[in-house]
Amino acid sequence: MGLAALAATTVGFSGCGGGKKSPRGVVKFGGTATYDGKPLPAGVMIMFTPDGGRQSAATVTENGAFYAKYTTAEDGVEHGALKVTVGWDEEMSGALPEGFEGLIKGYATDADALQITVDKANTEYALDFPKK
Fold it and tell me: Could you tell me the pTM of the whole model?
C-alpha cells in the first residue's frame, strides 16, 4: 500500500470523532496476526472494511498483536463480513523485515483482501494471512 493510500486512510479515520454510530453495530476487536505462520512485524497497518460501511484500522505491535480502532474515540470494527487488507509505510516504520514482502503485495487491495466474518462473540481473533 502506498503512502497516499495510507495517508487517505489516516485522514478519513482521524476525522471521525464520535458523532454517528454504525447502523450495524461495533464490537471490540483485536488479537494476533500472522503471515505464513510468522507473527506480523510491528508497524504493519491492518484495515478492516465492511461492504458499504466505515473502515476500522489497527497498527500491529509486538508479536503480531493488534487492536482495531473504529474512530479516534471508539475501539472495534463493524460486525459482519469484512475485507482485511494490509499496508506498510517505510518512511514511518523503516524497511519491511525480510520475508514479509509477499504479505504487502498479496493483501494490499480489496480485490486481494482476506475475507473474515466478525460476530459479537468472537472479539479475539487470530488472523492468518496465507502465503500466496
Answer: 0.82
